[in-house]
Amino acid sequence: MRSVLHVILATTVFLNLPLSVSADETERLTKAATGAHRSDKNIARNDWRHPVETLKFFGIKHDMKVAEVWPGSRGWYTEVLAAYLKENGTLVTLNYDGSTGRDYFDRGDKKFREKLAANPDVYGNVVVGNLMPPNTYPDLDDDVEDLDMVVTFRNIHNWVRNGIAEEMFQQMHSLLKPGGILGLVAHRGTPEMTEKEHAATGYLAESVIISLAERSGFELVD
Fold it and tell me: Tell me, what DSSP letter sits at residue 136?
């Protein structure tokens, strides 16, 4: 079985990078990941996706400004991030949309927005936008620019398949403040899985993803 790749990258290298979080942050994350706003099915997936451990690895804090890129139609991680950042932080979601003519993306974006609108107690503060090269780019207010962190989960193989990976990484880099963190999760393929046809399987070599990030100005942290 191929493994899952968790990577932290930074816009610049800087000292005292917060790669660990306190017991208080762990408690906040755990509460968000197991809250009543989540279905039993989604909570059960915590045992496989490890959202608390993953977000701790990225060094997230509850008062950060964070963007989730391509949360998809179901917003599995959005459920955790929105509840965690609700009181003191900011969550920006930048989903795909139907601007390139794909009905799948149009339907998915609408389903995601409907999910958020249906529960304003949890998602009412979420800033909702889109990022879909080459047609749609985020237009964020000044108070949500220069983000502390951008995260994306199991999306990169789709970007490679659709020929937009380079631009997606450039866009994520531009969203972050100096020293900001990009945390990503992807299905790690074997070292030879470096081509577009491999991306169609959902897996890519670790080297491909790190190279994409580094060409966009990121530096590998962990």
Answer: B
Q: Is 184 helix (H, G, I), strand (E, B) or coil?
A: strand
pTM over cut 0.90: yes
Instruction: Compute the average pLDDT of residues 109-120.
Output: 98
Buried b (16+ CB within 10 A) or exposed e, 124-163: eebbbbbbbbeebebebeeebeebbbbbbbbbbbbbbbbe
Terminal C-alpha separation, the chain? 22
- Higher confidence at residue 105 or residue 15? 105
Cα atoms in the Cβ-side hemisphere of radius 13 Å centred on 179 = 7
> CA distances (Å), 175 to each of 16, 45, 113, 139, 146, in order?
22, 29, 22, 11, 6
- Predicted confidence (pLDDT) per residue in 14-65, tens digit: 334 445 678 899 999 999 999 999 999 999 999 999 999 999 999 999 999 9
E-assigned strands of 102-203? 127-130, 147-153, 176-189
Provide the mean pLDDT of the chain: 91
| Phi–psi pair at 202, nearest 5 degrees | 95, -5
CA 9/CA 192 separation, integer angstroms: 22
Read off the amino acid at residue 156.
I
**Residue 14: DSSP 8-state:** -
- Tokens coding 102: 């794909």
